[in-house]
Amino acid sequence: xxxxxxxxxxxxxxxxxxxxxxxxxxxxxxxxxxxxxxxxxxxxxxxxxxxxxxxxxxxxxxxxxxxxxxxxxxxxxxxxxxxxxxxxxxxxxxxxxxxxxxxxxxxxxxxxxxxxxxxxxxxxxxxxxxxxxxxxxxxxxxxxxxxxxxxxxxxxxxxxxxxxxxxxxxxxxxxxxxxxxxxxxxxx
Length: 188
Fold this sequence. Notes:
- The structure is a single chain.
- It contains 10 helices and no strands.
- With 188 residues, the chain is mostly helical.
- Helix content is 75%, strand content 0%.
- The protein is globular.
- It has helices at 8-41, 43-46, 53-66, 76-81, 87-101, 103-111, 120-132, 134-142, 147-157, 162-187.
């Protein structure tokens, strides 16, 4: 009795399956990296969006929060425009743009969680997410800390439903932008 020799076609099939699992991760990370670098390089031009009122605040917040790797100042414009425009309108426009901008962190986590998996901060945010879930997203979206990028990455990596992540991120971002806009209206 002879032992069957594995056919070469099965290894080609395994290679094809491996490629199908690998390419979306690489594409997602390339998009996030390229977007972050582009936004960082264009940060001075993005600040000119303030001349467009609420849509400008929305776009500025969207772009400032879309950068995962390189930090961008996202609270300056809502602070200044809180004195010129209605703080509630500034908060809604800036908070909505900021929440949608956090989708890049979610995409980074969904496509390749190994990028930051071994850092102590990632492990801390991961522990908070597994223990408190959406409350972690809400609190980190409200606080002016760079940990929100990690929360988005963890939410994507753990496959938190996108609608749930966006809703709690939006609530936290709107509340933060409201506090900043009211502070700007009061001080300026």
